[in-house]
Amino acid sequence: MKEFKVVLVYANSMMDNLIPLSVSYLIACLKEKGIQVKLFDTTFYKTAEKSSDDERAEMLQVKPVDMSEFGINYKTSNMLDDFRKLVVDYQPQLIGFSVVEPTYPIAERLLNSIGDIKGDIKVVFGGIYSIFAYNKIIKHPLVDMVCYGEGEETIVNICKNMSFNISLNNLENMVIKEGDQVFVNRKSSLTDLNKLPNLDFSLYQKERFYKPVGGKVLKMAPVEFSRGCPYTCTYCADQALTESFKESGKWFRQKDNKRIIEEIECYLKEYNIEYFYFISESFLSMGEKKLDEFVELYKSIKIPFWFNTRIETITHDRLKKLESINCDRISIGLESGSEYIRKKILKRNYSNSYFLEKFKIISEYNISVSVNNIIGFPDETREQIFETIDLSRDVDAESFGAYIFQPYQGTSLRDYCVRKGYISEDYLAEDVHFSSGLTMPQITKEEIGGLQRTFTLYTKLPKEYYGDIKIAETFDEAGDKKFKELSEIYYEKYA
Fold it and tell me: By CB neighbour count within 10 A (0-12 exposed, 13-18 middle, 19+ buried), where does 488 fall?
């Protein structure tokens, strides 16, 4: 194949410093085939008023950390100018944008900035938003194609076809635009995770490795254990992904343990990693035999790690094994303390007493735990949000996340929100750390935002403070003053 140049654009939320799997796989696959690639990463550009970590720290949900000590600062140059310069200087044949729904506007700004110099450069969009919104994205006048399947093999095939002047119209996983015609091609078989190359982190700034965890900043790398999820929560797109790819294979896949260990050893050697984040929708959904094998293989490594899992997967035996190999932290998704919301709206079928029973098991081990909650679900009331607060008060977690429900493309709850008139059909969901986009009769967007801001105060402070915390919910001078006062009390007594 003749010389071929690609620019990959990672349209990222500002200062979200965990290195992404998706783009790192694309880099690795392209370089493996001898294709030249450069990365434009928006992480350190000032694309919003504040970062999600800053927002969470202000709301007392995480410990504040000064990232500048690790050389992590905002870029002083203009993002659009820098991108134009890269395109002009590098002269790629292909630009690939990786987007999720909240970051699509960033990608669109970047793309629009090169409209006058694009010329013959082909533009492709990929990422989970592209899977569900390809009909919208392909309408953009500067977009030539959209990948609505898995991208690792697909982007290599695009480069091969373009290099040899072969038509792109029949490429699997692709939506292709030619003039007024749009071709929606079939999806290919799903990727064998064990055959993918190791993630390639070489094109990221070295500062991208540093991530705050529990008030400490650690050199961290992601490790993919699985794709998909065996559960069917209504606020998550995995159910729709399973359906979308049913003709291509089983969406939920797990990587072999030996392959995982090979990768981990490689990342330790090449990047001197001191902490791993194991990427899996529910890490402990693996069977006992697979877990035992992993524990045995990881004994020689013992680098601390963190993962997400479901409360249903917690047992004494599993935590004892994980503690022995230096498991540092577990994130548990409670999501809602209202049994009605959890069972009827979210399809998470367990009782509050069951959650408390399982959580008590975690407390017996030297493993930190964070509990993730979501507020502002469709039809949720203030009283039901307080059920989440009440249940959180009953567990001794290191931290509680209070995220705002966002109706993402591909989820059944988005369809429900559209039917109820809570959002328009063309609504673009935002980041879960920020404001609600739902217009509902029983609770206002402002009230949801106020409860998010004061969630930790309600969870940690004695109930005698509830009257003052209610004042702190409001985003006015009196509310801001009261929130500051209560934050000082919180830090003095509980932080």
Answer: exposed
Strands (DSSP E) found in 326-457: 327-335, 368-375, 399-404
286: its two tokens: 């693996």
Residue-range domains of the chain with CATH: 5-51+74-184 (3.40.50.2300), 225-439 (3.80.30.20)
pLDDT of residue 281: 92
Q: Helix (H, G, I), strand (E, B), or coil: what is residue 300?
A: coil
In this structure, what token pair is assigned to residue 124?
A: 């492709």
- Cβ atoms within 10 Å of 279's Cβ, excluding its own: 18
Asked if residue 142 lies in contact with residue 123, where contact means CB atoms within 8 angstroms, the answer is yes
Q: Residue 96, SS3?
A: strand
Can you give the pLDDT at residue 1?
A: 66
Residues of the chain with pLDDT under 70: 1
The alpha carbon torsion through 446, 448, 451, 453 (nearest 10 deg) reads: -70
Alpha-carbon span 90 to 301, nearest angstrom: 40
Pairwise CA distance, residues 211 & 240, whole Å: 31
Q: What is the CA radius of gyration of the chain?
A: 23
- Could you give the angle at the alpha carbon of 267 between the alpha carbons of 263 and 270, nearest 5°? 130
d(CA 237, CA 472): 34
Residues 227, 231: Cα–Cα separation, whole Å? 12
pLDDT in tens, 180-212: 899 999 999 999 999 999 999 999 999 999 998
